[in-house]
Every structure is written in structure tokens, then in C-alpha cells.
């Protein structure tokens, strides 16, 4: 897997955390080992730093203690209220330091955890945004959606993902709803970049 693909997958995790947490107006900037997002909470105005480590400098390729310490200093310097560090994996020392500093960690082994209802509601906001981009409006009822053809088959990827998420949510399959949301974020990113 290339560094770019790993970085994109980690970026989608950061976007998921921001969407479910109610953060917006994000600034994205590169740093030598990855990408930082600084975003504000829509209601409280609190700020969050999501630091994504895509290319760790350590010989092991794992995010280490120095990354956590740099992030903690950045948070203090920039007046950030909350921090989330995202990497493929972390050293044991890095994990201990994050616990001490109150920095949330997300990795392949430690995925983000979400309240199913908040996850699903945030996802619906993404669906509405994509419908607006693709069709120019947000359907109010099922018959308003042009995502089905005359043979009652789905012709719209947004609609397919949304319907799958509804099915998964009804059954309480939160991991699958999270996967559906990540698919929507990937779709959103591809629409924005084209």
C-alpha cells in the first residue's frame, strides 16, 4: 500500500471524527510527517487539533513519543482544547504519553468509537450535502430522489450508501455504519477534487 493511500485512509478517519463531533471550518496544513486539521466546534467554538502521521521519521515507521510531545506543545501554543492523534500505529511510550496528556489516539488497532445515533445523524448531513452537490437539491421524500430508475434499481452511489447505512443502523451494526460513512467521505472527497 502506498504512502498516499495510507494517508488518504487516515485523513478520512479525521474527517469522520470532525463530522460526528460537530466540528467545521477546518484549516488543513502539512507538517513534515503528515497533515494537521484544526477545526472549531459549531456550537461551543472549542478548537480541536487532529494530527495525522502519514510518514513517521522513526526507523520503525511507528509514531513515537516525540510526535506526542510536539503535538502537546502545538496544542498549548495554539490554544487548542482537544487533540486527536491518528497514525497507523504508536509506540508504547507514545500511547502512555497520550493518556497522560489527554490526547485521543486512533490507529488501525484503535478505531474511533462513536455513539450510533450521533454517527448516523452526522452521516445524514453528509448525504444531504452530497445530494445538493450532485442533484442541486436535497430530496424531502423518497419519491423526490432521482437515485432510483424505473426498474426500482439504484443508479446513485450516494443513495446506495445511504440505504445501506439505514439498514445497518436499524440492526445496530455500528461498525458497518462507520464503514458506510467512510465511503461517503471518500465519495465526497472525490467529488470535491474533480
Tell me what the structure shows.
The protein is built from six helices and five strands, in the order H-E-E-E-H-E-H-E-H-H-H. The protein has a five-stranded mixed β-sheet, with helices on both faces. Helix 1 crosses helix 6, helix 2 packs parallel to helix 3 and helix 4 runs parallel beside helix 6. It starts with a helix and ends with a helix. The N terminus is likely disordered.
Describe the protein's topology.
Layout: H1 3-21, E1 23-31, E2 34-41, E3 47-53, H2 65-78, E4 82-87, H3 92-101, E5 104-106, H4 116-135, H5 157-170, H6 174-193
Parallel strand pairs: 3-4, 4-5
Antiparallel strand pairs: 1-2, 2-3
How many helices? The count is 6
Beta content comes to 15-25%
Rounded to an integer in angstroms, the radius of gyration calculated over CA atoms is 18 Å
What is the annotated CATH architecture of the largest domain?
3-Layer(aba) Sandwich
Question: How many discrete domains?
Answer: 2
Number of extended strands = 5
The secondary structure category is: alpha/beta
Please, what is the oligomeric state?
single chain
Residue runs with pLDDT of under 50 for 5 or more positions:
1-5
Secondary-structure element sequence?
HEEEHEHEHHH
CATH domain class of the largest domain? Alpha Beta
Please state the overall shape, judged from the principal axes of the Cα atoms. Answer: elongated
Give the CATH topology of the largest domain: Trna Endonuclease, Chain: A, domain 1
Average of per-residue pLDDT values = 86
How is the biggest beta sheet arranged? 5 strands, mixed
Span between N and C termini?
23 Å
Helical fraction: 40-55%
Amino acid at each position: 500500500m502506498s504512502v498516499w493511500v495510507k494517508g488518504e485512509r487516515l485523513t478520512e478517519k479525521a474527517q469522520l471524527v470532525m463530522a460526528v463531533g460537530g466540528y467545521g471550518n477546518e484549516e488543513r496544513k502539512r507538517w513534515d510527517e503528515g497533515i494537521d486539521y484544526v477545526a472549531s466546534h459549531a456550537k461551543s467554538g472549542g478548537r480541536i487539533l487532529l494530527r495525522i502521521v502519514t510518514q513517521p521519521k522513526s526507523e520503525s515507521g511507528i509514531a513515537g513519543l516525540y510526535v506526542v510531545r510536539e503535538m502537546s506543545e502545538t496544542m498549548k501554543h495554539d490554544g487548542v482544547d482537544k487533540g486527536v492523534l491518528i497514525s497507523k500505529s504508536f509506540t508504547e511510550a507514545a500511547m502512555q504519553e497520550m493518556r497522560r496528556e489527554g490526547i485521543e489516539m486512533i490507529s488501525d488497532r484503535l478505531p474511533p468509537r462513536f455513539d450510533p445515533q450521533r454517527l448516523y445523524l452526522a452521516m445524514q448531513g453528509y448525504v444531504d450535502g452530497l445530494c445538493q452537490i450532485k442533484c442541486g437539491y436535497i430530496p424531502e421524500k423518497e419519491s423526490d430522489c432521482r437515485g432510483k430508475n424505473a426498474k426500482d434499481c439504484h443508479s446513485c452511489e450516494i443513495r446506495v450508501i445511504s440505504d445501506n447505512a439505514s439498514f445497518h443502523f436499524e440492526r445496530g451494526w455500528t461498525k458497518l455504519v462507520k464503514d458506510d460513512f467512510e465511503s461517503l467521505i471518500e465519495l465526497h472527497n472525490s467529488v470535491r477534487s474533480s
